[in-house]
TrEMBL record:
InterPro entries: NadA, NadA_sf, Quinolinate_synth_A_type3
Known catalytic reactions: iminosuccinate + dihydroxyacetone phosphate = quinolinate + phosphate + 2 H2O + H(+)
Organism, as annotated: Novipirellula aureliae
Top-rank taxon: Bacteria
One Gene Ontology cellular component: cytosol
Signal peptide (from-to): none
Cofactor: how bound: Binds 1 [4Fe-4S] cluster per subunit.
Entry annotated with the keyword Iron-sulfur: yes
Official protein name in the record: Quinolinate synthase
Protein's pathway: Cofactor biosynthesis; NAD(+) biosynthesis; quinolinate from iminoaspartate: step 1/1
Ligand binding ([4Fe-4S] cluster): 122, 245, 335
Residues in coiled coil: none
Pfam families in alphabetical order: NadA
Length: 383
């Protein structure tokens, strides 16, 4: 439990979080529940499926990225959303919960969104900075007509990238709607510029019959056309950003082969952030929501090796003991940044709220808010 980083204060003073780190779990749990009871419906605690169990127990709702966006978009009675996920998820919640029509419904009242630990980021989202994406866009415009390129950002990205998509006729996708979003994009343009996750982009485009030879990978650290020839960019259908999830890239085709050899009849269930070599040979690939639903709807005795974040797989094992569930990799693959949100951070955040202080507020403003909302609303309208 004492795993998270305690930020240093500039003046060297003890961070106010430190006393919480010395508390036992049962005291933290009691205090968290007391604040939840105090606020009732005015407080909404959202948790992503990768969150650790001891935190998940205190959430009102949990979901995959798409479901969490919908929950934030729907939020009615609440005054504050405490987001037990990572930074881009909290930004998305702020944009959707505080869009103009929601503010009007609430007579202008703003819903505060807070992230219990500001260092809970997403390493994949950090692989694409807005300046890099803008530079790439300008560079490719020298070779192809970017008016016919639809930018698509995975929701695992900063709000500035979502805004870029909103401004350039593009859209946001999640792992649960990536195919529908790419179809939407191809109804409007000839090519897609997909960032930051090359694997989700590639795996999804392959299901649409697009050949990998038409999917050049744009490396932002290469000077010329992201390391591609002019011809490769002209021949492209989907230009993939060179980004990945450090958790899902750990799953390998040999892990699949070993499980199939050692456990005849076992089924392989993976997240589409896994590399193509794994995704291609899996039995089922889908968002965390789909992974849960697939296990839930399977008969007792089904054997699974699951390639996604460790905490979710452990929870599935505990919730479905009548099925045989294995973790696909021999090494620990966990989302270390999401894991930074723990009981001390949650308790500290909530008790501050009770005392009228919003710690770690997440607020997207100005044009970034306006244009990222455009791209998110396009996503929510795609069925
Ligand atoms: P889901 O949308 O499938 O929950 O994925 C989010 C994520 O970050 C996976 O790494
Ligand atoms: Fe980001 Fe990977 Fe963590 Fe998902 S699992 S939040 S993509 S680092």
């Amino acid at each position: 439990m004492l795993n998270a980083i305690i930020p240093q204060l500039d003046d060297g003073a003890v961070h106010p979080l430190r006393p919480y780190k010395t508390l036992e779990a049962d005291e933290l749990q009691t205090r968290i529940e007391a604040v939840r009871a105090h606020f009732g419906e005015r407080l909404l605690i959202l948790g992503h499926h990768y969150q650790q169990d001891e935190v998940i127990e205190h959430t009102d709702l949990r979901g995959d990225s798409y479901q969490l966006s919908e929950m934030a978009a729907d939020s009615r009675a609440c005054e504050t959303i405490v987001f037990c996920g990572v930074h881009f998820m909290a930004e998305t919640a702020d944009i959707l919960a505080n869009r103009p029509e929601k503010l009007a419904e609430r007579d202008g009242r703003y819903v505060n969104v807070t992230l219990p630990d500001m260092s809970a980021g997403c390493s994949m989202a950090d692989m694409a900075a807005i300046k890099q994406v803008e530079d790439a866009w300008d560079d490719m415009a020298e070779v192809i007509d970017t008016d016919r390129v639809i930018p698509v950002t995975y929701i695992n990205s900063a709000a500035s990238l979502k805004a870029f998509c909103g401004q350039h006729g593009g859209i946001v996708c999640t792992s649960s709607n990536a195919r529908a979003v790419l179809e939407w994009a191809f109804e409007r343009g000839d090519r897609v510029f997909f960032f930051p996750d090359q694997h989700l982009g590639r795996n999804t485009a392959l299901t649409m019959g697009i050949d990998e030879s038409q999917m050049p990978v744009w490396d932002p650290y290469q000077l010329d056309l992201g390391g591609n020839t002019e011809q490769a960019i002209r021949d492209s259908r989907v230009i993939l950003w060179k980004g990945h999830c450090s958790v899902h890239q750990m799953f390998r085709a040999e892990h699949v082969d070993q499980f199939r050899k050692q456990h005849p009849g076992i089924k392989i269930l993976v997240h589409p952030e896994c590399p193509r070599e794994v995704n291609d040979i899996a039995d089922v690939s889908g968002s965390t929501g789909k992974i849960i639903e697939t296990v839930r709807s399977s008969p007792a005795g089904t054997k699974w090796a699951i390639g996604t974040e460790l905490h979710l797989v452990h929870r599935l094992k505990a919730e479905f003991p009548e099925q045989e569930i294995h973790f696909l990799s021999p090494v620990v693959c966990m989302c270390a940044t999401m894991y930074r949100i723990d009981l001390p951070h949650l308790c500290w955040t909530l008790e501050n709220l009770r005392d009228g202080v919003v710690v770690n507020p997440i607020k997207v403003e100005g044009d970034t808010k306006k244009w990222s909302l455009v791209a998110l609303e396009r996503m929510l309208a795609v069925k």
